[in-house]
């Protein structure tokens, strides 16, 4: 994106489109485009390596480095490391995402569970095969929008944890039956927008389980499970979506 206009407003960012490579090299030891991109595309693996190097160099200056031991785990699409102190141990994974405008939709460094199954929506310069995602491919994720939806529901329902208990029942009890947790999550979210929220009380737990199974049955009969975010007019207004997604 051209940043020349920002210079007129007092800012002086480097414009990668209209500055010569010689000027860019004089300003930087190595261009950010070379560090983070492959061609014209943001590269997940290069971004992960760049961030990993920053964390490794910065760790020495953190006070906790005297008492905690940091070990990095090999990973090409995220930054994973283990922190240990005596018997205490913490595993950390940093994922990377690019926000689409001011919306709650992102493209992320890691594919979601549903996308690993082969139904991914990718922003990429090259085709991704079934078991391989190109380093320039950033799968689209709706996780932030879904999290905001669940927070919205928790403020509205009489028993704020009932819908989560329903989801937990199906994902745990029916594990291994061919339905992924993302399928159950999608089904439960749809039922939350079709059954009045006033009916999600503890005494109606069994009835809500039946509603979820009935919705899944209709999906199986029609061989179709609608995406929860794409084109869903029932979403709360507080969830910000690009116009094309709405």
From TrEMBL:
A cellular component term, taken from the record's GO annotations: membrane
Residue stretches in coiled coil: none
Domain Mab-21-like HhH/H2TH-like residue range list: 178-228
Compartment(s): Membrane
Keyword check for Signal: yes
SMART domains: Mab-21 (SM01265)
Keyword Cytoplasm part of the UniProt annotation: no
The name this protein goes by in its record: IPIL1 protein
Alphabetized Pfam families for the sequence: Mab-21_C
Predominant location: membrane
Protein topology in the membrane: Single-pass type I membrane protein
UniProt keyword terms in alphabetical order: Membrane, Signal, Transmembrane, Transmembrane helix
Family per record: Belongs to the ITPRIP family.
InterPro entries: ITPRIP-like (IPR026250), Mab-21_HhH/H2TH-like (IPR046906), MAB21L/cGLR (IPR024810)
Organism: Tricholaema leucomelas (pied barbet)
